[in-house]
């Protein structure tokens, strides 16, 4: 499936951003700064701080498995309390499915080497190893089933819409798909649009390992847990995930950060960004400049998605017209545009399905971007674990806040009321009598809301 020499021709070190990467027995090595990047389950792990990122994903995996274990415990406790026959059937289905689900995820994510970490559930909570909205292993879990099980209607319309916007006879050349997820659109582009090389990039190892297996010709069986199950049996459904056929040569999967993409300037003829530009933690102008630097002169940027800018400052929540103007200012010609309502996440087991009006733009690079944003690497004291941690003002403030939070949590003993806890704060001269009670109440509200959001 892969020719490492053709991949090496477009790679650059994500840390020094200058030198080429060479594949050696230990992994990919920068010939300039000598930084090393491992290969996990055949997938290059090309993050600027690879070991730090690996540790983070291990933590997320362990926290996920511990969360599943807790969920099974809750289900079993409810079963033991006595429930109606149909309810028992549903809870037994969920308990057994979650246990099997955890085993399947553990096998699939074995390259992360979970045995390298041993951290308890409460410690993960304390260290905030939660599943952030844009970085959890299973945030896009339903996409796996859409891509490789039941989503043919959406998948077929998506690739046809892109082909119609770019021209069926377009020469895609060397193609990069940033934010490829579990890889179905990248696979369809490679199989139907005939690029000479396709590199599919994502930062989520679960999505990448599924893409690796199914595009290689394997069939995976994973559970689907629909949002709004149609029937009792639909609460946990085992699905077979497979590609129409094994991917042809020239298709590569890379684990990397789209905001620090490990590729040479002007390495690609086409860059595709599916469902990405409105969810990344960067304004569109800066990201458009990144895309520009990756494209050769005359290359094409193909964007696909619904353009729901809802994050960041109000000024960055762009309208459709503003987004197109940003693209033009970033060195691209007036884009060709296609818009269409398509089915979106229409699982046959769920009542939760909708249509999305997606936008495709195809913009040709006319000139260099006015600026090339550089995403700074982590500071050395975060990478080199033997260096002292600086005592910054932000850390001092956080330390005081953490001590107060810990003191408040220690006051929760199952007997004290909010008023009594506030009285202790006043006695310890941590707060005034007027501020203490409202502050304790706000703190406990936030803790309660956080617990509900994280399933604790």
Question: Can you walk through the features of this model?
Answer:
This protein has 456 residues and is α/β, with parallel strands linked by helices. Helix content is 41%, strand content 17%. The protein has 14 helices and 14 strands. The strands form 4 sheets. It has a 7-stranded mixed beta sheet with strand order 10-7-6-11-12-14-13. A 3-stranded antiparallel beta sheet has the order 1-2-3, with no helix packed on it. Helix 5 packs across helix 6 (152-166). The longest helix has 32 residues, at 50-81. The radius of gyration is 25 Å and the shape is globular. The protein starts with a helix and ends with a helix. Mean pLDDT is 89; it is low at 127-134.
Helical segment count: 14
Strand content: 15-25%
Shape field: globular
Helix content estimate: 40-55%
Number of DSSP strand runs: 14
SSE inventory with pairings:
Elements: H1 4-8, E1 21-24, E2 27-30, E3 36-37, E4 39-40, E5 43-44, H2 50-81, H3 85-108, H4 121-126, H5 141-150, H6 152-166, E6 174-178, H7 184-192, E7 197-202, H8 205-215, E8 220-224, E9 237-241, E10 251-255, E11 268-274, H9 284-294, E12 295-305, H10 320-329, E13 336-344, E14 354-364, H11 380-383, H12 393-411, H13 418-427, H14 433-454
Parallel strand pairs: 6-7, 6-11, 7-10, 11-12
Antiparallel strand pairs: 1-2, 2-3, 4-5, 8-9, 12-14, 13-14
Helix pairs in contact: 2-3, 5-6, 13-14
